[in-house]
């Protein structure tokens, strides 16, 4: 018996991130199932190479018997992770960044998804994690090709470059850039809406309504317009993330204490046809991380551990999200609100928890805002002949006055949209159904088949075509259902507690 337990432990240990580079790990991911080009990965930027100076072996490239060519280290990646970390990182740091992206603040809305999807919503939290993990791998694989010498070489830098290779220089990059900007700005809007939801949930009888709380929260976000780098908020953001983890543990502890009162009969296999597509959008949005994976993989010291890191981060996210959503709904049943902390019964306790989450939301806002501002500047404000508009940066390296004014207007723009659509979960479902399905489902599979079709098996092609089909169907139905739910839930002035769409 002890022998079996020892073998089981060795198997699990061999798949842990710290052991990802072992030969058994390489063999495991070489048989990923979609053909040898699935796991073509090398460097992006900040390339480290091996200590001996030789070309490292990349997971999944054994069949090629080809070394990996070192890429240029010019510049930084598109996104540096939540804490602004630059330079080479190990697999644990990379996993931390992925975990923060797919298991962040928006987990507070997942029990609301179970309200309308039952066990199907819980299942979707695991299934979507698997799909997004797969599409993240194949998206990174699209960055690399075999050169004439049989070496794996990075020929594309980013998601945008992949789109340009597949859809053409004129439209490909613009489409992905637009989707990324929309995704990032809508994330900013969600943070503002979340602040309003949390504050009105803490003080429902106060003189300040939800929209006014959003305006007050935006006042603290205006300094984001002056940010040149994210290190100013990175340390505080780290500790707020730790506080958020603690709050999640506290909520789970509260749910476990209420175990004798769990409403088992409320979680069923039946679904609400009008709202279930919205819940799928919420789930998809909660796993979206593809836009920064090329940069993250490029910053890893050991690229061969990228797949294992991605696997474990998504497994951990799926287990925690499904458990959190299920237990929270068992505890609060049909009274589950869009933000689960508003269900906490003790006012003092709820106020403390919500205020910590508000601070976390305010400190999380700069990352998507900063990334969106940079994308807009790169697309529109590089100066002629690259763009129609002049550069935002003066010769001394400082932002021009009008550029700062535009950044301030961008913050105000996110506030105005938040005030216009102050329904956190439904808005989250709309974003997930629109940009989430395109960035995480449809485009990675289409681009991978476009670039790697000759190296894929029939099963691999069929699987990725089915992902595209699921993405398109979920997107179209989800957009319609989310828009319909927003219309049904829209009220002026906005009441609290919010009336659920019917």
TrEMBL record:
It is found in: Cytoplasmic vesicle membrane; Presynapse. GO terms for biological process: gamma-aminobutyric acid import; neurotransmitter transport. It catalyses: 4-aminobutanoate(out) + n H(+)(in) = 4-aminobutanoate(in) + n H(+)(out); glycine(out) + n H(+)(in) = glycine(in) + n H(+)(out); beta-alanine(out) + n H(+)(in) = beta-alanine(in) + n H(+)(out). The chain crosses the membrane at residues 119-144, 181-200, 235-254, 274-293, 314-332, 352-376, 425-446, 467-492. The keyword Membrane applies. GO terms for molecular function: gamma-aminobutyric acid:proton antiporter activity; glycine transmembrane transporter activity; L-amino acid transmembrane transporter activity. GO terms for cellular component: cytoplasmic vesicle membrane; inhibitory synapse; presynapse; vacuolar membrane. Its main location: membrane. Residues 92-481 form the Amino acid transporter transmembrane domain. Pfam families: Aa_trans (PF01490). It is a multi-pass membrane protein. Keywords: Cell projection, Cytoplasmic vesicle, Membrane, Neurotransmitter transport, Synapse, Transmembrane, Transmembrane helix, Transport. Antiporter that exchanges vesicular protons for cytosolic 4-aminobutanoate or to a lesser extend glycine, thus allowing their secretion from nerve terminals. The transport is equally dependent on the chemical and electrical components of the proton gradient. May also transport beta-alanine. Acidification of GABAergic synaptic vesicles is a prerequisite for 4-aminobutanoate uptake. Belongs to the amino acid/polyamine transporter 2 family. This is Vesicular inhibitory amino acid transporter. It comes from Caerostris darwini.
């Amino acid at each position: 018996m002890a022998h079996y337990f020892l073998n089981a432990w060795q198997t699990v240990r061999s798949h842990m991130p710290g052991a990802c580079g072992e030969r058994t790990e390489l063999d495991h991911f070489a048989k990923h199932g979609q053909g040898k080009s699935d796991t073509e990965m090398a460097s992006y930027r900040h390339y480290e190479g091996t200590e001996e100076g030789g070309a490292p072996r990349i997971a999944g490239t054994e069949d090629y018997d080809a070394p990996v060519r070192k890429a240029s280290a010019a510049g930084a990646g598109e996104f540096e992770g939540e804490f602004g970390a630059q330079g080479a990182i190990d697999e644990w740091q990379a996993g931390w960044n992925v975990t923060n992206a797919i298991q962040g603040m928006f987990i507070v809305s997942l029990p609301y998804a179970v309200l309308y999807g039952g066990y199907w919503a819980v299942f979707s939290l695991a299934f979507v994690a698997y799909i997004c993990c797969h599409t993240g791998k194949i998206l990174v694989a699209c960055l690399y090709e075999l050169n004439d010498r049989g070496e794996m070489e990075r020929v594309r830098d980013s998601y945008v470059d992949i789109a340009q290779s597949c859809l053409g220089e004129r439209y490909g990059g613009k489409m992905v850039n637009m989707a990324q900007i929309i995704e990032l700005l809508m994330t900013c809007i969600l943070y503002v809406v979340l602040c309003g939801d949390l504050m009105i949930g803490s003080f429902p009888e106060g003189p300040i309504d939800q929209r006014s709380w959003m305006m007050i929260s935006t006042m603290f976000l205006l300094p984001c317009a002056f940010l040149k780098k994210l290190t100013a908020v990175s340390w505080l953001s780290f500790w707020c993330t730790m506080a958020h983890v603690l709050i999640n543990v506290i909520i789970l502890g509260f749910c476990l204490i209420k175990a004798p009162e769990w409403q088992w009969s409320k979680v069923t296999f039946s679904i609400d046809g009008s709202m279930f597509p919205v819940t799928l959008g919420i789930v998809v949005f909660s796993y979206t991380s593809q836009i920064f994976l090329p940069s993250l993989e490029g910053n890893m010291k050991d690229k061969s551990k990228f797949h294992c890191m991605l696997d474990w981060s998504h497994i951990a996210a799926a287990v925690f999200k499904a458990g959190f959503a299920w237990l929270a709904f068992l505890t609060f049943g049909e009274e589950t609100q869009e933000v689960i902390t508003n269900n906490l019964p003790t006012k003092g306790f709820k106020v403390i928890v919500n205020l910590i989450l508000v601070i976390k939301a305010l400190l999380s806002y700069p990352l998507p805002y900063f990334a969106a501002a940079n994308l807009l500047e790169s697309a529109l404000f590089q100066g002629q002949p690259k763009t129609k508009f002049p550069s935002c940066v003066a010769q001394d390296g400082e932002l021009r006055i009008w550029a700062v004014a535009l950044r301030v207007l961008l913050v105000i723009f996110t506030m105005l949209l938040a005030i216009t659509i102050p329904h956190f979960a439904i808005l989250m479902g709309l974003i997930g159904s629109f940009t989430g399905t395109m960035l995480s489902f449809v485009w990675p599979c289409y681009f991978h088949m476009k670039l790697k079709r000759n190296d894929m098996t029939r099963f691999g092609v069929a699987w990725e075509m089915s992902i595209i089909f699921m993405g398109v169907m979920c997107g179209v139905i989800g957009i319609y259902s989310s828009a319909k739910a927003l219309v049904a839930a829209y009220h002026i002035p906005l009441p609290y507690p919010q009336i659920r769409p019917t």
